[in-house]
Amino acid sequence: MDTTAGRRMRLLLIEDDPALGPLIEEVLSETYDVERHVDGRDGLLAGLDRDFDVMVVDRRLPSVDGLGIVEALRRGRVTVPILLLTALGTVADRVDGLDAGADDYLVKPFEFDELLARLRALTRSFSAAGAWLAIGTWRFSPDDRILTSPYGARVVLTDRESELLRVLALEPDRTFSRDHLLRVVFPAGERPGTVDTYVHYLRRKSERDIVLTIRNRGYRLGAL
Q: What DSSP letter does each residue of 22-83 carry, written as one string?
């Protein structure tokens, strides 16, 4: 049984197929606490309003399709793993799903054992990522040096980039001088301009406003 802090994981299932939907719900209910919706808009509202550990979303749905749901969830700062189900199996279809912010993509027809295995892998990888910090609509995991956009795209940072962002993110309302950042993030002997260089690297990998320049004072975390 998959658990989080001693409880069964909560799973949101958005699937309207009258034959397949109840079967998926029955199988997943042996492992998860499942909440199922058959309408895309209803499922999206549930995903935005309530806390889940993982989501399974069909691509073709009434009201709002699966890609629209995933994109809206990511814009709404929902960061839990999302698995897309679809009968569309071309490379372009898979790329569209992943670009929308889904973490995995399973093509119909599929075996339930594979569905369960993929969900286990998704929840393991997210649990293993450890604690994360919110930076506006982005998510930052210092332990694995990964910065995740609101659409699910992941950016791998270097050790120095990650440490610089971690220091800023732990005190988001504080403005840090270059000298302080140089002392706590970088090896002895580095020039103050090194801080500016790594701020540029972070902006280039994410968004310009991830780090704000405070004139004559230094840098602070931005609000993306």
A: HHHHHHHTTTSEEEEESSHHHHHHHHHHS--SEEEEESS-SSS-HHHHHHHHHHTT--S-EE
According to CATH, the topology of domain 133-221 is Arc Repressor Mutant, subunit A (1.10.10)
pLDDT in 10s for each residue of the chain, 224 residues:
555 444 688 999 999 999 999 999 999 999 999 999 999 999 999 999 888 889 999 999 999 999 999 999 988 878 788 999 988 878 888 888 888 888 899 999 999 999 999 999 888 766 555 567 778 888 888 878 889 888 778 899 999 999 999 889 888 889 999 999 998 898 888 888 999 999 999 999 998 899 999 999 999 998 76
Cβ–Cβ under 8 Å, residues 214 and 166? no
> The domain at 3-128 falls in which architecture?
3-Layer(aba) Sandwich (3.40)
Residue 220, SS3? strand
